[in-house]
Amino acid sequence: MSDTRFVPASPTSGEGATEHVHATTQACPDRRVIVIDPGHGGTVDEDGSKANNATSVSKVREKVLTLQYAQSLKQQLASAEVQAIFRSKNYCEVKTILTRETDVNPSGADRVAVATSNKADILLSIHFNGFDDPRARGTETFYKAKQNGHQTNEAEDLALAEAVLEAAVAAIKVFDSKGRSREAKADKDTQHKSIWVLRDPGIGLSGKMCRSAMLEVEFVTNAVADHHLVSGPKATQNRDAVMLAVAKALAKAL
User: What are phi and psi of 143, to 5 degrees?
Assistant: First the structure.
């Protein structure tokens, strides 16, 4: 285990978070919470979370990309377009919380705990794929398989994973004709057969179980994907476009 104790990034994460949420709920009865989990981080592997997996063609580590994309998603959730969707649902407040905002590696349990303590309604974990064969391409999402336990709302998690996938792929295809869907899959189909961060966090402010999904944006070991999403002159613009599409999908699903 790391010697560095994980401190949740948001002032509404960790100790005191529940009291803050309850107090705010009294003043604002119809609010929601979205937790964004930038995968990996730090330099030491923790239970349920490796420090890093993929490294892009342009030598950018996955842990850096996940934080950049998570920060972009948080910004897009605050955009006028997305806020209009929230207002149409009569939500008086939608709070967005990141499980980390710096180069640290919370354990899988710590990441889920941020969603639990804040009564999150949606938890989305962001990752990137890598593969030995540089031709590998595509976007995929994952949800917790019921057979893996810690899962009471599999159908709802699948629906969220499918909505996020559809939005991300459509946005990528605007600037990359080779973008494609690799489908929404149960975590039992992954290399490790189970993904810790997709465990049920608990009941959200909606009164229903928090829905969880993981987005694998693309294979950054592919040169074309790297150019469009990581290193090319329009990479930042493309990143924000993809995250705006995902933000809209989350808002509609909330």
Answer: -140, 160
For the entire predicted model, the pTM comes to 0.89
Domain 30-253, classified CATH 3.40.630.40, yes or no: yes
* 125, two tokens: 């974990």
User: What are the helix and strand counts (H, E) for the chain?
Assistant: 7, 6
Torsion of CA 74, 41, 253, 192, to 10 degrees: 170
* Residue whose C-alpha is closest to residue 155's, from 208, 217, 88: 208
CA dihedral 9, 10, 12, 15 (to 10 degrees): 20
Taking Cα atoms as reference points, which of 60, 95, 79 lies closest to residue 217? Answer: 60
Cβ neighbourhood burial of 4 (10 Å; 0-12, 13-18, 19+): exposed
Predicted confidence band of residue 14 (pLDDT cuts 50, 70, 90): very low
